[in-house]
Each structure stands twice: as C-alpha cells, then as structure tokens.
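Same chain as my last thread, 151 residues:
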Amino acid sequence: MADHHLAQLNIARLRAPIDSPELADFVARLPEINELAERSPGYVWRLQDESGDATALRPFGADIIVNLTVWRSVESLRGFVYRTAHLEPMRRRREWFVPLDRPHLVLWWIPAGVLPTVTEAAERLELLTAGPSPEAFTLREPYPSPGARAA
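reply #2:
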C-alpha cells in the first residue's frame, strides 16, 4: 500500500447560477460523473455535502464551485480525467464556466488515510501561482510522491 495519496482541487467560475437553464446539462451530468469517479481505479474520496456533490459549497466565492478529491496516484487521476466519460463534459467546460486568470487546478501529496481540507486546498492553489513544486503541481508537471522521491 502506498504511503501517500494524491489530493486534487479544481475550481470553476460559473457563467450563470447553478440552477439556470444555461447550466442544466452540467448539473444533469453530475451524478453520472461522480458515480464514474467513485467506480474508477484509484479513487479514494471526494468532498460532498448531503446532496451528494459539492456544488452548494462555495469557499472561494458565490460564483465559484469546488471539486476536491483524493486518488491513489497521478496515473489513476489522469485515467479518470482523460480516458472515461468525464472527458466529454470537460471538453464543454467553456459553455458553463468563465476562464480564470489564475490557476484553477492543483495537485499535492498527502499521507494515505488523511483527507485534505478546503483550507489546505486553497493554500496549495495559492502556492501554485509561484509555479509548480513538490508542494503544489499539475497533471502537466507532476511530482513524484514523497515515498518515491526518497527511494
């Protein structure tokens, strides 16, 4: 078993209110995509409220939704993002979200069995503004887990 898991945060600024017709397709796909994530190899955990998703949680602002997940590896997250039905709604993101002028996705390693907090995730996203590092990185520029770096 790995000593570390991969935490992932991504945020998105909504083009319209979450219950608007403009976002109806996005909202309709959420249960399917969340279930797909949970069935994906390497999935560990995701932030959610009583409704089963995290769209009502707005720690970054009233018009910004958050997705916070934990995976066993960069490869397992990459497989879910790019090699499942998740890819289709990701390709449509510009229909639903306004591009941000700062990083919107960050990855970092956490000890296995520990869950990330939204506060920690926000700190990691801020760290990424200085550029990728072992403490805050992206899928394009991943860093190995601390256990792999030590070996």
